[in-house]
Amino acid sequence: MTYRYSVLENRDCGKIDKLNKLTNKDTFWEDVRKLTKNVTSDHSIHRWGCLADMRWNELITGCEDVRTEIDYGKPIRYFDRKTGKEVFAVE
Predict the structure, then answer these.
(1) pLDDT tens, 10-68?
(2) Among 6, 24, 50, 57, which is least packed by CB within 10 angstroms?
(3) pLDDT band (50, 70, 90) for residue 5
């Protein structure tokens, strides 16, 4: 995950660095819970959640800087922010 699209606060850089170290899809969410177990601020919890979702999308697609497009009732679609082309989840 790069700092380009998601950084709104200076503290997000540290969160992004920690999330970038998580590479195992099987234990990703457990590891995120361990990173956030002592976080009490609602704002900070929300930022961790947003950034973790972005990192998860990168892990499942194998593409950096992925955005999602959600149409309710349809499957979630993933797009590369650089090229705009659709990318698909890799198993």
Answers:
(1) 788 889 999 999 999 999 999 999 999 999 999 999 999 989 998 898 888 888 878 78
(2) 24
(3) low
| Residue 80 neighbours by CB distance under 10 Å | 15
Q: For residue 71, give every residue at least 6 positions away whose Cβ sits within 8 Å of its Cβ, in sequence order, or none.
A: 77
Q: CA 41 to CA 31: how far, in whole Å? A: 19
Are 32 and 47 in contact by the 8 Å Cβ rule? The answer is no
Residue 79 β-bridge partners: 67, 86
The encoded tokens of residue 33 equal: 């819970």
Show Cβ contacts of residue 50 under 8 Å, excluding neighbours closer than 6 positions. Answer: 6
Contact 6, 50 (CB under 8 A): yes
Whole-angstrom distance between the N-terminal and C-terminal Cα of the chain? 19
Q: How far apart are CA 1 and CA 65, in angstroms?
A: 6
